[in-house]
Amino acid sequence: MDRSSLFQLIQEQLDPENTGFIAVENFTSLVEHHELQLDPSKLEMLFALVQSNEEGQVCYQELIELMSSKRSSSFRRAIANGRRTLQREILLDETGLGIYKRFVRYVAYEILPCETDRRWYFHQNRLCPPPVFMAIVTVVQIIVFLCYGIMLNKWVLQTYQPDFMKSPLVYHPGHRAQVWRFFSYMFMHVGLEQLGFNALLQLMIGVPLEMVHGILRISLLYMAGVVAGSLTVSITDMRAPVVGGSGGVYALCSAHLANVVMNWAGMRCPYKLLRMILALVCMSSEVGRAVWLRFSPPLPSSGPQPSFMAHLSGAVVGISMGLLILRSYEESLQQQCSWWVIVFSFITFLLFAIFWNIFAYELLGVQIPPPP
Protein backbone atom coordinates (compact mmCIF):
# COMPACT_ATOMS: atom_id res chain seq x y z
CA MET A 1 0.00 0.00 0.00
CA ASP A 2 1.49 3.38 -0.97
CA ARG A 3 1.47 6.35 1.35
CA SER A 4 -1.34 8.30 -0.36
CA SER A 5 -3.62 5.25 -0.28
CA LEU A 6 -2.82 4.75 3.38
CA PHE A 7 -3.71 8.37 4.16
CA GLN A 8 -7.01 8.00 2.34
CA LEU A 9 -7.78 4.71 4.10
CA ILE A 10 -7.03 6.24 7.49
CA GLN A 11 -9.32 9.18 6.88
CA GLU A 12 -12.20 7.20 5.32
CA GLN A 13 -12.31 4.25 7.73
CA LEU A 14 -11.00 5.67 10.98
CA ASP A 15 -12.18 9.29 10.82
CA PRO A 16 -15.35 9.31 8.66
CA GLU A 17 -16.73 12.39 10.44
CA ASN A 18 -13.56 14.42 9.79
CA THR A 19 -13.01 15.21 13.47
CA GLY A 20 -9.23 15.26 13.02
CA PHE A 21 -8.68 12.51 15.62
CA ILE A 22 -8.44 8.72 15.38
CA ALA A 23 -9.05 6.19 18.16
CA VAL A 24 -5.82 4.49 19.21
CA GLU A 25 -7.24 0.95 19.09
CA ASN A 26 -8.57 1.49 15.55
CA PHE A 27 -5.27 2.77 14.21
CA THR A 28 -3.32 0.00 15.92
CA SER A 29 -5.54 -2.56 14.21
CA LEU A 30 -4.98 -0.88 10.85
CA VAL A 31 -1.20 -0.91 11.26
CA GLU A 32 -1.15 -4.58 12.27
CA HIS A 33 -3.41 -5.85 9.46
CA HIS A 34 -2.09 -3.87 6.46
CA GLU A 35 1.27 -3.98 4.76
CA LEU A 36 2.91 -0.57 5.15
CA GLN A 37 5.74 0.49 2.85
CA LEU A 38 7.47 2.61 5.50
CA ASP A 39 10.96 2.90 6.87
CA PRO A 40 11.41 0.72 9.97
CA SER A 41 12.22 3.78 12.07
CA LYS A 42 8.99 5.52 10.98
CA LEU A 43 6.96 2.41 11.76
CA GLU A 44 8.53 2.28 15.23
CA MET A 45 7.63 5.90 15.83
CA LEU A 46 4.04 5.33 14.71
CA PHE A 47 3.64 2.43 17.10
CA ALA A 48 5.17 4.51 19.89
CA LEU A 49 2.78 7.37 19.19
CA VAL A 50 -0.41 5.33 19.07
CA GLN A 51 0.42 3.01 21.95
CA SER A 52 1.32 5.71 24.46
CA ASN A 53 -1.37 8.33 23.94
CA GLU A 54 -3.12 8.83 27.25
CA GLU A 55 -6.25 10.42 25.72
CA GLY A 56 -7.10 7.37 23.63
CA GLN A 57 -6.87 9.24 20.32
CA VAL A 58 -4.26 10.36 17.84
CA CYS A 59 -4.23 13.56 15.81
CA TYR A 60 -4.57 12.75 12.10
CA GLN A 61 -2.37 15.67 11.04
CA GLU A 62 0.42 14.61 13.38
CA LEU A 63 0.43 11.15 11.83
CA ILE A 64 0.65 12.65 8.35
CA GLU A 65 3.54 14.91 9.36
CA LEU A 66 5.41 12.08 11.04
CA MET A 67 5.00 9.72 8.09
CA SER A 68 6.00 12.49 5.65
CA SER A 69 9.28 13.17 7.52
CA LYS A 70 8.26 16.75 8.28
CA ARG A 71 9.78 18.42 11.30
CA SER A 72 7.12 18.18 13.96
CA SER A 73 6.74 17.95 17.69
CA SER A 74 4.93 14.65 17.08
CA PHE A 75 8.33 13.05 16.55
CA ARG A 76 9.55 14.08 20.00
CA ARG A 77 6.25 13.06 21.56
CA ALA A 78 6.51 9.64 19.95
CA ILE A 79 10.05 9.21 21.20
CA ALA A 80 9.35 10.37 24.73
CA ASN A 81 6.12 8.45 25.20
CA GLY A 82 7.25 5.28 23.49
CA ARG A 83 10.72 4.96 24.96
CA ARG A 84 9.77 2.11 27.31
CA THR A 85 7.92 0.06 24.71
CA LEU A 86 10.37 0.29 21.80
CA GLN A 87 13.22 -2.20 21.52
CA ARG A 88 16.11 -0.77 19.51
CA GLU A 89 19.59 -1.93 18.71
CA ILE A 90 22.46 0.44 19.42
CA LEU A 91 23.41 2.30 16.24
CA LEU A 92 27.08 1.42 16.72
CA ASP A 93 26.12 -2.25 16.27
CA GLU A 94 25.05 -1.64 12.65
CA THR A 95 27.30 -3.64 10.29
CA GLY A 96 27.92 -3.69 6.54
CA LEU A 97 27.69 0.10 6.15
CA GLY A 98 29.17 2.00 3.23
CA ILE A 99 31.51 4.95 3.57
CA TYR A 100 28.75 7.55 3.42
CA LYS A 101 26.52 5.82 5.98
CA ARG A 102 29.50 5.43 8.30
CA PHE A 103 30.06 9.17 8.03
CA VAL A 104 26.37 9.78 8.76
CA ARG A 105 26.65 7.59 11.84
CA TYR A 106 29.75 9.49 12.92
CA VAL A 107 27.89 12.81 12.52
CA ALA A 108 24.94 11.44 14.50
CA TYR A 109 27.18 10.58 17.45
CA GLU A 110 29.04 13.88 17.20
CA ILE A 111 25.94 16.09 17.24
CA LEU A 112 22.98 14.29 18.84
CA PRO A 113 22.83 13.34 22.54
CA CYS A 114 20.03 10.76 22.39
CA GLU A 115 20.27 7.27 20.90
CA THR A 116 16.73 7.40 19.55
CA ASP A 117 17.46 10.74 17.88
CA ARG A 118 20.61 9.29 16.38
CA ARG A 119 18.76 6.26 14.99
CA TRP A 120 16.03 8.47 13.54
CA TYR A 121 18.56 10.74 11.85
CA PHE A 122 20.59 7.79 10.57
CA HIS A 123 17.60 6.07 8.94
CA GLN A 124 15.90 9.13 7.50
CA ASN A 125 19.05 10.93 6.32
CA ARG A 126 19.23 11.75 2.63
CA LEU A 127 21.96 13.55 0.73
CA CYS A 128 19.41 15.98 -0.73
CA PRO A 129 19.70 18.81 0.04
CA PRO A 130 23.44 18.57 0.70
CA PRO A 131 25.10 20.75 3.38
CA VAL A 132 26.17 23.44 0.93
CA PHE A 133 25.88 26.63 3.00
CA MET A 134 28.99 26.25 5.13
CA ALA A 135 30.95 24.86 2.19
CA ILE A 136 30.02 27.81 -0.05
CA VAL A 137 30.81 30.38 2.65
CA THR A 138 34.22 28.78 3.27
CA VAL A 139 35.09 28.59 -0.42
CA VAL A 140 34.14 32.24 -0.99
CA GLN A 141 36.21 33.31 2.02
CA ILE A 142 39.24 31.43 0.68
CA ILE A 143 38.83 32.91 -2.81
CA VAL A 144 38.53 36.45 -1.46
CA PHE A 145 41.58 35.97 0.74
CA LEU A 146 43.64 34.62 -2.15
CA CYS A 147 42.64 37.54 -4.37
CA TYR A 148 43.69 40.14 -1.79
CA GLY A 149 46.79 38.15 -0.87
CA ILE A 150 47.97 38.17 -4.49
CA MET A 151 47.01 41.82 -4.98
CA LEU A 152 48.75 43.01 -1.79
CA ASN A 153 51.54 40.38 -1.85
CA LYS A 154 50.87 39.92 1.86
CA TRP A 155 49.41 36.88 3.63
CA VAL A 156 49.43 37.91 7.30
CA LEU A 157 48.31 41.13 8.99
CA GLN A 158 46.67 42.32 5.79
CA THR A 159 44.72 44.98 7.69
CA TYR A 160 47.91 47.07 7.92
CA GLN A 161 47.76 47.61 4.17
CA PRO A 162 45.69 50.72 3.27
CA ASP A 163 44.41 49.06 0.10
CA PHE A 164 42.97 46.20 2.15
CA MET A 165 40.90 48.57 4.28
CA LYS A 166 39.58 50.25 1.11
CA SER A 167 37.73 47.07 0.20
CA PRO A 168 33.95 47.49 -0.17
CA LEU A 169 33.53 44.35 1.94
CA VAL A 170 35.18 45.61 5.15
CA TYR A 171 32.97 47.12 7.84
CA HIS A 172 34.26 50.57 8.72
CA PRO A 173 32.41 53.04 10.99
CA GLY A 174 32.85 55.72 8.36
CA HIS A 175 30.84 53.63 5.91
CA ARG A 176 27.93 52.72 8.20
CA ALA A 177 25.41 53.88 5.62
CA GLN A 178 26.53 51.07 3.31
CA VAL A 179 24.37 48.40 4.92
CA TRP A 180 25.91 45.44 3.12
CA ARG A 181 29.15 45.95 5.04
CA PHE A 182 27.42 44.69 8.22
CA PHE A 183 27.27 41.30 6.44
CA SER A 184 30.07 41.28 3.87
CA TYR A 185 32.90 41.74 6.36
CA MET A 186 32.68 38.00 7.07
CA PHE A 187 34.47 37.32 3.75
CA MET A 188 37.57 39.34 4.72
CA HIS A 189 40.25 38.12 7.15
CA VAL A 190 43.23 39.63 8.94
CA GLY A 191 45.56 36.95 7.68
CA LEU A 192 46.13 33.31 6.97
CA GLU A 193 45.95 32.36 10.65
CA GLN A 194 42.44 33.79 11.14
CA LEU A 195 41.16 32.35 7.88
CA GLY A 196 42.58 28.91 8.67
CA PHE A 197 41.06 28.88 12.14
CA ASN A 198 37.60 29.94 10.93
CA ALA A 199 37.58 27.69 7.87
CA LEU A 200 38.61 24.67 9.96
CA LEU A 201 35.81 25.21 12.48
CA GLN A 202 33.24 25.92 9.77
CA LEU A 203 34.01 22.62 8.09
CA MET A 204 34.53 20.48 11.21
CA ILE A 205 31.58 21.81 13.22
CA GLY A 206 29.41 23.78 10.81
CA VAL A 207 29.01 21.07 8.16
CA PRO A 208 27.94 18.32 10.62
CA LEU A 209 25.52 20.75 12.28
CA GLU A 210 24.07 21.61 8.89
CA MET A 211 23.71 17.93 8.00
CA VAL A 212 21.67 17.27 11.15
CA HIS A 213 19.69 20.48 11.62
CA GLY A 214 19.32 21.65 8.03
CA ILE A 215 20.53 24.57 5.98
CA LEU A 216 17.83 27.01 7.12
CA ARG A 217 18.50 26.73 10.84
CA ILE A 218 22.29 26.71 10.62
CA SER A 219 22.45 29.55 8.09
CA LEU A 220 20.11 31.57 10.32
CA LEU A 221 22.35 30.95 13.33
CA TYR A 222 25.54 31.78 11.43
CA MET A 223 24.19 34.98 9.89
CA ALA A 224 22.69 36.06 13.22
CA GLY A 225 26.16 35.79 14.72
CA VAL A 226 27.65 37.78 11.84
CA VAL A 227 25.11 40.61 12.09
CA ALA A 228 25.30 40.69 15.87
CA GLY A 229 29.08 40.94 15.59
CA SER A 230 29.18 44.04 13.41
CA LEU A 231 26.33 45.76 15.28
CA THR A 232 27.95 45.07 18.66
CA VAL A 233 31.21 46.60 17.43
CA SER A 234 29.31 49.66 16.21
CA ILE A 235 27.96 50.12 19.74
CA THR A 236 30.84 49.10 22.02
CA ASP A 237 33.96 49.81 19.91
CA MET A 238 32.69 52.66 17.78
CA ARG A 239 35.96 53.65 16.09
CA ALA A 240 37.03 50.15 15.05
CA PRO A 241 36.50 48.30 11.77
CA VAL A 242 35.57 44.60 11.60
CA VAL A 243 36.80 41.77 9.37
CA GLY A 244 36.47 37.99 9.51
CA GLY A 245 33.70 35.46 9.96
CA SER A 246 34.39 35.00 13.67
CA GLY A 247 30.92 36.19 14.72
CA GLY A 248 29.24 33.38 12.83
CA VAL A 249 31.92 30.83 13.74
CA TYR A 250 31.67 31.57 17.45
CA ALA A 251 27.88 31.36 17.27
CA LEU A 252 28.13 27.81 15.87
CA CYS A 253 30.90 26.68 18.19
CA SER A 254 29.40 28.14 21.35
CA ALA A 255 26.02 26.60 20.59
CA HIS A 256 27.57 23.19 19.97
CA LEU A 257 29.81 23.28 23.04
CA ALA A 258 26.93 24.44 25.26
CA ASN A 259 24.75 21.64 23.87
CA VAL A 260 27.48 19.09 24.62
CA VAL A 261 27.88 20.34 28.19
CA MET A 262 24.13 20.34 28.89
CA ASN A 263 23.81 16.80 27.49
CA TRP A 264 27.15 15.52 28.73
CA ALA A 265 25.94 12.09 29.81
CA GLY A 266 24.18 11.41 26.51
CA MET A 267 26.96 12.51 24.16
CA ARG A 268 28.96 9.58 22.79
CA CYS A 269 31.65 11.44 20.84
CA PRO A 270 35.11 10.03 21.72
CA TYR A 271 37.51 11.99 23.95
CA LYS A 272 34.83 14.61 24.56
CA LEU A 273 36.52 16.11 27.64
CA LEU A 274 39.88 16.49 25.90
CA ARG A 275 38.23 17.91 22.80
CA MET A 276 36.17 20.33 24.88
CA ILE A 277 39.28 21.63 26.64
CA LEU A 278 41.14 21.93 23.32
CA ALA A 279 38.25 23.82 21.70
CA LEU A 280 37.99 26.26 24.60
CA VAL A 281 41.74 26.86 24.58
CA CYS A 282 41.77 27.51 20.83
CA MET A 283 38.75 29.83 20.95
CA SER A 284 40.18 31.73 23.92
CA SER A 285 43.54 32.05 22.17
CA GLU A 286 41.88 33.47 19.08
CA VAL A 287 40.06 36.06 21.18
CA GLY A 288 43.32 36.91 22.96
CA ARG A 289 45.08 37.35 19.63
CA ALA A 290 42.31 39.68 18.44
CA VAL A 291 42.53 41.75 21.64
CA TRP A 292 46.31 42.01 21.25
CA LEU A 293 46.04 43.19 17.64
CA ARG A 294 43.35 45.70 18.60
CA PHE A 295 45.20 47.43 21.44
CA SER A 296 48.89 46.61 20.80
CA PRO A 297 49.35 46.50 17.02
CA PRO A 298 52.77 45.10 16.13
CA LEU A 299 53.11 47.40 13.11
CA PRO A 300 52.38 51.09 12.52
CA SER A 301 48.87 51.60 11.18
CA SER A 302 46.85 54.49 9.83
CA GLY A 303 43.87 53.78 12.09
CA PRO A 304 42.36 51.46 14.68
CA GLN A 305 42.72 47.75 14.04
CA PRO A 306 39.70 45.40 13.78
CA SER A 307 37.68 44.86 16.93
CA PHE A 308 37.39 41.62 18.88
CA MET A 309 33.80 42.24 20.04
CA ALA A 310 32.38 40.22 17.13
CA HIS A 311 33.82 37.07 18.73
CA LEU A 312 32.05 37.74 22.03
CA SER A 313 28.71 38.72 20.53
CA GLY A 314 28.77 35.62 18.32
CA ALA A 315 29.27 33.49 21.42
CA VAL A 316 26.28 35.15 23.09
CA VAL A 317 24.11 34.42 20.04
CA GLY A 318 25.27 30.81 20.09
CA ILE A 319 24.55 30.27 23.78
CA SER A 320 21.06 31.78 23.47
CA MET A 321 19.55 31.29 20.02
CA GLY A 322 21.94 28.56 18.92
CA LEU A 323 21.50 26.34 21.95
CA LEU A 324 17.72 26.37 21.53
CA ILE A 325 18.06 25.46 17.84
CA LEU A 326 20.40 22.55 18.55
CA ARG A 327 18.20 21.24 21.36
CA SER A 328 15.14 21.29 19.08
CA TYR A 329 16.06 18.52 16.66
CA GLU A 330 12.91 17.49 14.75
CA GLU A 331 10.84 19.99 16.75
CA SER A 332 9.01 23.05 15.52
CA LEU A 333 10.65 26.21 16.83
CA GLN A 334 7.52 28.25 16.16
CA GLN A 335 5.61 26.29 18.79
CA GLN A 336 8.08 27.09 21.56
CA CYS A 337 7.58 30.18 23.71
CA SER A 338 11.31 30.46 24.42
CA TRP A 339 12.02 30.76 20.68
CA TRP A 340 9.77 33.81 20.37
CA VAL A 341 11.36 35.35 23.46
CA ILE A 342 14.79 35.01 21.83
CA VAL A 343 13.52 36.32 18.48
CA PHE A 344 11.91 39.32 20.21
CA SER A 345 15.13 40.02 22.11
CA PHE A 346 17.21 39.81 18.93
CA ILE A 347 14.85 42.13 17.03
CA THR A 348 14.93 44.59 19.93
CA PHE A 349 18.72 44.54 19.80
CA LEU A 350 18.65 45.14 16.03
CA LEU A 351 16.32 48.13 16.37
CA PHE A 352 18.43 49.60 19.17
CA ALA A 353 21.60 49.14 17.12
CA ILE A 354 20.02 50.79 14.06
CA PHE A 355 18.98 53.87 16.05
CA TRP A 356 22.38 53.92 17.73
CA ASN A 357 24.17 53.97 14.38
CA ILE A 358 21.91 56.73 13.09
CA PHE A 359 22.02 59.10 16.07
CA ALA A 360 24.62 58.14 18.71
CA TYR A 361 27.81 58.95 16.80
CA GLU A 362 26.85 62.59 16.38
CA LEU A 363 25.26 62.97 19.82
CA LEU A 364 28.33 61.53 21.57
CA GLY A 365 30.77 63.37 19.32
CA VAL A 366 32.72 60.24 18.47
CA GLN A 367 35.84 61.01 16.40
CA ILE A 368 35.64 58.45 13.62
CA PRO A 369 38.88 57.82 11.74
CA PRO A 370 38.56 58.97 8.14
CA PRO A 371 37.30 56.16 5.91
CA PRO A 372 39.99 54.75 3.65
UniProtKB/TrEMBL annotation:
Similarity annotation: Belongs to the peptidase S54 family.
InterPro entries according to UniProt: EF-hand-dom_pair, Peptidase_S54_rhomboid_dom, Peptidase_S54_rhomboid_met, Rhomboid-like_sf, Rhomboid_IM_Serine_Proteases
EC numbers on record: 3.4.21.105
Transmembrane regions: 132-151, 182-203, 215-235, 247-265, 277-295, 307-326, 338-359
Catalyzed reactions per annotation: Cleaves type-1 transmembrane domains using a catalytic dyad composed of serine and histidine that are contributed by different transmembrane domains
Topology in the lipid bilayer: Multi-pass membrane protein
GO terms under biological process: proteolysis
PANTHER family the UniProt entry points to: RHOMBOID-RELATED PROTEIN, RHOMBOID-RELATED PROTEIN 1
UniProt main location, coarse: membrane
Glycoprotein listed as a keyword: no
Protein name in UniProt: Rhomboid-related protein 1
Active-site residues from the entry: 246 (nucleophile), 311
Function field: May be involved in regulated intramembrane proteolysis and the subsequent release of functional polypeptides from their membrane anchors.
Pfam families the UniProt entry points to: Rhomboid
Molecular functions per Gene Ontology: serine-type endopeptidase activity
Entry keyword set: Hydrolase, Membrane, Protease, Serine protease, Transmembrane, Transmembrane helix
GO cellular component annotations of the record: membrane
Domain Peptidase S54 rhomboid: 177-327
Compartments where found: Membrane
